[in-house]
Amino acid sequence: MATKSKRATKKALPAAPASRQAMAVEPNLHQASHETQKYGEIIRMPNGLSEAVCKKSVALLNQCLADTITLRDMYKKHHWQVVGPTFNQLHLMYDQHYEGQVLLVDILAERVQLLGGIALAMAADIAETTRIPRPPRGREPAAVQIRRLAEAHELVITGAREAAAKVDEAGDDGSNDVFVSNVLRTNELQVWFLTEHLVAASPVAA
């Protein structure tokens, strides 16, 4: 009975006004615009590497990232636009290679971030940074598509080898592994599959 009387005499807290309740769950869509880290700045991470080493590695990784995003998107363009007697084979291969480049994009971007940098992301920034020439908007013969992709692969491969040597010399083993184990091996395999379609016996011709 004593417990019951205590409960009976306990005063209930007043309900919050309806306006305050609404404010508690309403999204704040008026956040002030500002950058918490500028592009090119390095946030010091406890990774055993100096800020100077991280900054150089981030620049090399971002260049490779911009080229990889461009190559990735070129594969999707050709996947949509390919025509001819090898349509089905190339249509499927282009999409498989696209997915492989998608994986590389994430690996490169995450490596940039874990070194304390900022990864490139937006299309305009990629277009300003990539070294891969822009293809025309229109459709091209399958042989030309493959030639463009092969040239882009070679550019990425050459850049990755140079970058791997530089980060290795600086002692950044993790970035070296990304350039060698991920970027080089994926691109070397894909460019082999591509160029086998251009042998003399192939029906693919411009």
Q: What is the alpha-carbon Rg in Å?
A: 26 Å
Indicate the CATH topology. Answer: Ferritin
Mean pLDDT: 91
Helix-strand topology string: HHHHHHH
The tally of beta strands, per DSSP, is 0
Report the top-level CATH class: Mainly Alpha
Strand content: under 5%
The biggest beta sheet reads: none
- Gap from first CA to last CA: 95 Å
Q: What's the CATH superfamily, by name?
A: Ferritin, core subunit, four-helix bundle
Quick summary of this structure?
The chain has 206 residues and is mainly α.
What features would you describe in this structure?
Helix 3 packs across helix 5 (123-129), helix 3 packs antiparallel against helix 6 (142-170) and helix 4 runs antiparallel to helix 7 (173-195). This protein has one domain: Up-down Bundle (Ferritin), CATH 1.20.1260.10. The chain is mainly alpha-helical. The mean pLDDT is 91. The chain has helices at residues 2-9, 18-25, 51-81, 87-114, 123-129, 142-170, 173-195.
